[in-house]
Amino acid sequence: MSLTLHVPELSELGFRQRLLSDPETMSYNAGCDLGFPGYHNDTGCIDFPRGDWDGWYARWVGAEPTRFYAYLQDTATGEFVGEVSLYETTGPGVYEMGIVLHSSRRGRGCSREGIRLLLDHAFGELGAKEVTNCFEPTREAALKIHLAAGFRIVREDNGLLYLSIIK
């Protein structure tokens, strides 16, 4: 499957709303006790009501180099299959990444392709020096994909693996 990064228009945020409200897609996030309004600990889902779209969009879209957000789009069908993001953390050029793939697209190479596209954007267009991510060690598929992309485990702390890739 061939994917591309698609920076959404405000009117296209319905896909993000559906993605974050899908219990099967968000199950990795269940039980994390994130403790913010709209997070559902039992399912991992996150509310993204229409009333929040304008503020969220202003913060995330068109905010480069501080933040980057895009959908993963199937080039053959035009269908959105997931989302990716980057935001600066400890200083210029150091980014934390995120990827959420719709559950129906898992196991088809989309995560691997999505991470590759995101890293190309980070190290290319954004001039990143380092990209990081963290998640639970029980997420074996995520770990395998990150290691295959060139990430290395930096440390394990408080039940999370911290990974990094440096250009």
UniProtKB/TrEMBL annotation:
The protein's name in its UniProt record: N-acetyltransferase
Source domain of life: Bacteria
SUPFAM superfamilies linked: Acyl-CoA N-acyltransferases (Nat)
Organism from which the protein derives: Acutalibacter muris
GO molecular function: acyltransferase activity, transferring groups other than amino-acyl groups
Positions of transmembrane segments: none
Pfam family, one: Acetyltransf_3
Annotated N-acetyltransferase domain residues: 17-152
